[in-house]
Design a protein that fits this description.
Layout: H1 7-30, H2 37-51, E1 73-77, E2 80-82, E3 96-105, E4 108-117, H3 123-141, H4 149-162, E5 173-175, E6 182-186, E7 203-206, E8 209-211, E9 218-220, E10 227-229, E11 235-237, E12 240-243, E13 250-251
Antiparallel strand pairs: 1-3, 2-10, 3-4, 5-6, 5-7, 7-12, 8-11, 9-10, 12-13
Length: 255
């Protein structure tokens, strides 16, 4: 069932989203060569503490997971697409890093992700990250009353495929509200004019995931959480929580 949020609820979700934005900004600021993924997790955790917010990631255990998630961020590096577990790994020059983060405040959840490059960037990685950001922008632009879920999926997928990138099948965006994952599913590829109609009060996490090598294959790492590209190519992941309103899409996790 898709829950339509009231305007007041959307305002409250915006407050949760701003905690997410502050945390991602803080993580990006300190991420540098030699900094460990666990240190990035602690930076984000401190933002939660300062805001009096909780983590929808910490302890989360969906049906596919062998263990509860042990951190407040997902930290995916290079060929990791999503769901990377923070470890003592220290960032190296040229690493492509994707950070996914959520916050729960006042009973509402915000969810967002960024990709960036540490140190000296590769040209191919810059293009990959820029394309992920363009795909996200295209998906948000399609998130208007009167469109359908398929219009968002088509907008995201068109940008990704036109650039020659792969898209991991079965993973994409979702509804957000009292819980991190709610109905509906928001695929990263689809047919325009199909799927659930978009209505005022729907709140969606739109999240492109791109595989740099151009193939769609991926697999779960031995930790049971991290998804990695089959071809070993690099991946990028971007995301915003977006409210569908009569006046247009409202980005609740804007940084």
């Amino acid at each position: 069932m898709v829950e339509l949020k009231t305007d007041t609820s959307i305002d409250e979700m915006y407050e949760a989203g701003q905690v997410v934005g502050r945390a991602l900004t803080a993580v990006r600021k300190v991420a540098d060569v030699g900094v460990s993924l666990l240190e990035l997790d602690e930076v984000a955790h401190q933002v939660l503490r300062d805001a009096g917010a909780g983590s929808p990631f910490l302890g989360y255990r969906p049906s596919f997971a062998p263990t509860p998630f042990p951190a407040v961020i997902c930290a995916s590096v290079n060929d990791a697409i999503v769901h990377g577990i923070p470890t003592g790994y220290r960032l190296r020059d040229g690493d492509l890093v994707s950070i996914d983060f959520g916050a729960e405040l006042g009973g509402w959840v915000g969810d967002s992700a960024i990709s960036f490059i540490v140190g000296e960037p590769r040209v191919a990685d810059v293009r990959l990250v820029e394309t992920a950001e363009r795909a996200l922008a295209a998906g948000i632009e399609a998130a208007v009353v009167g469109n359908r879920i398929g219009d968002i999926a088509h907008a995201v997928g068109t940008v990704c495929r036109a650039a020659g990138y792969g898209i991991p099948d079965g993973f994409g965006g979702h509804g957000v509200g009292r819980r991190m994952h709610e109905d509906p599913s928001v695929p990263n590829e689809g047919r325009p004019g199909r799927g659930l109609p978009l209505r005022h009060g729907m709140v969606l996490a739109i999240e492109p995931m791109l595989i740099g090598g151009g193939t769609d294959g991926f697999h779960a790492a031995p930790d049971g959480w991290t998804l990695r590209t089959d071809d070993g190519s690099r991946a990028a992941h971007t995301e915003h929580t977006v409210a569908i309103t009569r006046t247009g899409p409202r980005i609740l996790t804007a940084r």
